[in-house]
């Protein structure tokens, strides 16, 4: 058995990944690793050789090379001293998936993929409100969002389909209130035996 248990959490920008992950952490004791947050932290780190490259991708809604993202994830996993992880917002494309499989097979086992399904209109309006409410994110604006949604459709949906083929996807309807959505999430975790 791999040392680490991983649940990937996917869905469009604003689908509710971060909000639901916080609740899962409280109820089920997972460690939450947001790939986007780890990249934003690395971007801010003084002396980072990847700062500019990361910022360009985030603004353009494109995807950072997997070597960078996967090594940030792996380091966070090792440093946590824990075994059960929610990895939020990764893998987003074929390069992410291949890089993860190459580096992490035998180290981490993907137990489930939680997929928050949410319409484009709801996703856009949530991210724009988040931007207006001062998220401080350089990509919560309509130009970046249009590109993020395009990347999600073209590059991330095929990854969700890949895991669907492995029967690992649990799809959650993400448009209700956070508490209502969490009722559905709870049912998924109740059947997960680690
Ligand atoms: N990103 C990336 N690789 C990842 C995760 C995020 O390149 O594995 C970049 C990408 O440019 C993305 C941005 O970070 O558009 C924001 O990602 P985040 O997951 O924070 O956005 P969310 O989907 O939560 O709105
Ligand atoms: Mg997020």
From TrEMBL:
Enzyme class: transferase
Pfam families listed in its UniProt record: ADK
Cofactors (names): Mg(2+)
Compartment(s): Cytoplasm; Nucleus
CDD domains: ADK
SUPFAM superfamilies, sorted: P-loop containing nucleoside triphosphate hydrolases
Keyword Nucleus recorded: yes
Gene Ontology terms describing biological process: 'de novo' pyrimidine nucleobase biosynthetic process; pyrimidine nucleotide biosynthetic process
Residues involved in a ribonucleoside 5'-phosphate binding: 40, 62-64, 89-92, 137, 148
Subunit structure: Monomer.
Its biological purpose: Catalyzes the phosphorylation of pyrimidine nucleoside monophosphates at the expense of ATP. Plays an important role in de novo pyrimidine nucleotide biosynthesis. Has preference for UMP and CMP as phosphate acceptors.
Protein name, as recorded: UMP-CMP kinase
């Amino acid at each position: 058995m791999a040392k680490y248990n991983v649940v990937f959490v996917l869905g469009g920008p604003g689908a509710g990944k971060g909000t639901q992950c916080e609740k899962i952490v409280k109820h089920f004791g997972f460690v939450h690793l947001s790939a986007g947050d780890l990249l934003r932290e690395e971007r801010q780190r003084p002396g980072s050789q990847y700062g500019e490259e990361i910022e360009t991708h985030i603004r353009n809604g494109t995807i950072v090379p997997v070597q960078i993202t996967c090594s940030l994830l792996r380091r966070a996993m090792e440093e946590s001293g824990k075994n059960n992880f929610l990895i939020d917002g990764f893998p987003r494309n074929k390069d992410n998936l291949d890089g993860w499989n190459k580096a992490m097979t035998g180290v981490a086992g993907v137990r489930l993929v939680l997929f928050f399904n949410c319409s484009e209109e709801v996703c856009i309006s949530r991210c724009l409100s988040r931007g207006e409410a001062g998220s401080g994110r350089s990509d919560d604006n309509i130009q970046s969002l249009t590109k993020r949604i395009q990347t999600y459709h073209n590059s991330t949906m095929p990854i969700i389909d890949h895991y669907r083929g492995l029967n690992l996807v649990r799809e959650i309807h993400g448009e209700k209130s956070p508490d209502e959505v969490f009722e559905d999430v709870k049912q998924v975790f109740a059947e997960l035996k680690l």
